[in-house]
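Ticket #4471: complex job returned nothing on first submit. Input attached below:
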Amino acid sequence: MAEWASTGEAAAGDRDLLDRVRADMPDEECLYDLAELFKVFGDSTRIRILYALFESELCVCDIAEVLNMTQSAISHQLRVLKQARLVRNRREGKQIYYSLADDHVRTIIGQGMEHIDE
Amino acid sequence: MAEWASTGEAAAGDRDLLDRVRADMPDEECLYDLAELFKVFGDSTRIRILYALFESELCVCDIAEVLNMTQSAISHQLRVLKQARLVRNRREGKQIYYSLADDHVRTIIGQGMEHIDE
DNA sequence: TAATCATGTGAACATCTTTTCATGTGATAT
DNA sequence: ATATCACATGAAAAGATGTTCACATGATTA
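Support reply: We reran it on our side without changes. The output follows.
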């Protein structure tokens, strides 16, 4: 028996399997963007900011107060969230109000919650 | 006019709003776990591994070949994926086959894709 | 048993991240 | 205009992360 046919599952199609996997793989750029997106969710400060915005739009100093962090730290993170188009902002006088950009945020976080609650 | 009533949106409920936001915030541990989970998705190597496993279960060396990376690097990443319970494995002779642990993986990645395709 | 194959793992290195600190910008009020 | 408030931003320091390298483990075969 040839060595490439040694095991069940992966044995059948075989040389084709890896080719098929390669073929179905999205392009490099897409995968990179996807990883970048999840990286944004991968920080508890940013997760907390997003959760805060679930309730209502908030200005920077309010977020800072709720999370008990410096305004500067929050501002840096809001920039990351904005670049990922997860939040939007609008100015009102001196303050700038941030809100969730769309519903994917809720869905993604919701699915994440489901997974850890297993 | 008192300064705390200066703007529209956040002005009404007011002192209550931040309290409400604080109240609805999941506990620290939960938020941390959630961030940890997304951190796992936040690396293009791991995303590529997961995508490869969309197609079929695969052994470590096959994954390494498909991604054109060293077996060691893949092994390290599989450990991370396993600790996050995103993949499972089974032994078959010398080889160890990895597969997706559940459907949250597909859902989460799918939602991520939708977001970047905007 | 010894050799070999597939995989796991610890340490080291380079790189990237997050926060802090100091300062810059834009808007309001005096 | 000047002071003040809310926010943004660059640089630096501390910490976390991913890959490589060398080696260990576990299973098969000779």
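The longest strand of chain B covers residues 87-92. Closing as resolved unless it happens again.
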